[in-house]
Amino acid sequence: MKIYADENIETSIIDGLRRRRITVHSAVELGYRGKSDKFHMSKADELDAIVLTHDVDFLIMASAPDVTHRGIIFSHSKNVSIGDCIRGVEVVANVLSDRDMRNHIEFL
User: Fold this and answer.
1) Spatial distance between the Cα atoms of 105 and 1, rounded to a whole number of angstroms
2) Given Cys at both, which of 49, 86, 90, 97 links 4, Cβ 3.0 to 4.6 Å?
């Protein structure tokens, strides 16, 4: 499973996931800071990656009846620590397949 970390995901989370051998594409590292949520969703799809976000707007966008996506992992930054986010994503990556995540939102 590949992860696309949108621009609001902390570098420490990205680094922690990479230390656990999880492939992470960072929106910031790719130069996509300031792009729309729709752009990020599309870019994740191009990269065959699951979106990792703290942004509630992705939940709203994904709930639209005409929207399909590879999957979203949502972690609220005020309720989930950096360590818990890393561990939660690691569990998702080890338990769920890309097929399981298709059009699915996993809440940490």
Assistant:
1) 15
2) 49
